[in-house]
Amino acid sequence: MASSLTKDSVRRGTPGSEKTFFGHPRGLATLFMTEMWERFSYYGMRALLPLYLVAPGGLHLSAGTASAIYAVYLSLVYLLALPGGWFADRLLGPRKTVAVAGGVIMLGHLCLALPTAASFYVGLILVAIGSGLLKANISTMVGHLYDGPEDPRRDGGFTLFYIGINLGAFVAPLVIGTIGENVNWHLGFALAAVGMALGLAQYLLGGRHLNPKSSRVPTPLSAAEKSATLRKGLIWLAVAAVFYGIVGGTGHFTLNWALIPLTLIGLIVPIVVIARIHRDKDLEPAERSKVSAYIWFFVAAAVFWMIYDQGGSTLSLFAEKNAKNSVLGWEFPVSWYQSVNPVMIMALAPVFAWLWLWLNRRGKEPSTIVKFASGLVLVGASFFVFLAPLSIAEGGHKAAALWLVAIYFVQTVGELTLSPVGLSVTTKMAPKKYASQMMGVWFLAVTAGDSVTALLSNPAVGGVNLDKMGFVALEGVLAVVAGVAVWMYRNKVKKLMGNVN
Questions:
Q1: Is the Cβ–Cβ distance between 263 and 451 less than 8 Å?
Q2: What is the mean pLDDT of the chain?
Q3: 31-85 tens-digit pLDDT
Q4: How many Å apart are CA 47 and CA 336, to the nearest integer?
């Protein structure tokens, strides 16, 4: 795709003829490398996280608590993308916000590299904050490089950017995971900090190639609004400090005093945000109808991510104890499983892009609703596949690594039928008033799904072992039933969608 777009864009007079990165503006190279290194640090740390939490040489927590922490962490990253967009829109602009985000992420990884539990949790919070700030804005900056939606290079530019994301995610577990598991956990986390430092350095050095639009603050706060925002923020901060000071001072503080409130926030905020948008009196009837239809997609996506994101926790912890992590007699670190999805994404994404176009030309491309239903059925089917290695482990044997690869493969196919389609339908169905905010709402589906996982796995609230056959089967059935329900009500949803296919 990129090469053909490059040929179209070399004609004299075409916007952005200064391109030097595969026929695209030089700023794309800066953002490509920044995102690649940020994903390298993020996915490397994420691959180590659940393993470190349960390891005797790590925090030595129970599998349930580790799964809850992992799920809460993921939910926070996506939840914070919403205020991350607001921060850029109202205070600093995307370019400065991404620079701040890179520094916060690097500091967070450095805290993770320190051998104390307190610094570890501070590091997780910092990485979540930085990732939320960056995630909401770097894609916006890619869009700024092009002359509007009609620029013929735009889709190709985002394709290259997407490759950078998956390239970083693929390499990270192989490097950071190997060092963390085989040498030293904290050295692995330190390597994640090095990765982010490299990304931040080249971002600052290559910043001159970015579009000036990325430095602007679209809707800056007035002096009165800044004062009011600061005052409200300090009040909430003081309330939290006093509350947790009392809890800690009386000797009652445990990890769940932080985990459970964050889990509930991850469940409540998505509901409140969508309800507020749906009840907005400024929406036209057609827009409100589309929001009603979007709720179906949002709930479906939350169910999908609830299961899918367990690939980094439930599946990883299962592999650590119950799988033969070897191929042809050659053993590999458990964290390497986290490289399976990104390499499959890079291999299969072009195939799916071609497939949808091929079917469209023949008038047979599935509708958005059918694609969503397929994604849910597939992610449910992946947990039915999971029943096989679970059964092998219950029989006292270790499951072959290919069973886990098969699970990741089915989940990846499901992701490609749901995730890109979800991003597309979000932009199509967003009310004009919320055009820029709806992408943050889409990310809240991940927050909601991971928050459900955190609640289910937390031992403090009667959590269950997520790798037990009965519960895995239940989750698989839930996803398949949800997919079938979406398909059965497709005509009703399509009617609510109006002119969106």
A1: yes
A2: 89
A3: 999 999 999 999 999 999 999 999 999 999 999 999 999 999 999 999 998 888 8
A4: 8
Q: How far apart are CA 254 and CA 50, in angstroms?
A: 19
Q: Which residues of 384-402 are buried (b: 16+ CB within 10 A; e: fewer)?
A: bbbeebbebbeeeeebbbe
E-strand stretches of 384-426? 399-400
> What is d(CA 157, CA 126) in angstroms, rounded to the nearest whole number?
30
What DSSP string describes 277-318?
Answer: HHH-TTS-HHHHHHHHHHHHHHHHHHHHHHHHGGGGTHHHHH
Residue 435's Cβ-count burial label (10 Å; 0-12, 13-18, 19+) is: exposed
**What stretches of 55-116 show up as alpha helix (H) in DSSP?**
63-79, 81-87, 94-113
For 189, half-sphere exposure in the C-beta direction (CA atoms, 13 angstrom radius) is 27
Residue with tokens 């986390």: 189
Q: At 407, is the pLDDT very low, low, confident or very high (cuts 50, 70, 90)? A: very high
Is 290 a residue whose pLDDT tops 80?
yes
Is 0.70 surpassed by the pTM of this model? yes
Contact 292, 278 (CB under 8 A): yes
Asked if residue 196 lies in contact with residue 102, where contact means CB atoms within 8 angstroms, the answer is yes
Reported residue count of the chain is: 501
Q: Which two tokens stand for residue 124?
A: 């997780």
Query: In degrees to the nearest 10, what's the CA dihedral of 199, 205, 210, 213?
Result: 100
pLDDT value at position 215? 92
Q: What angle do CA 377, 383, 384 make, to 5 degrees?
A: 85
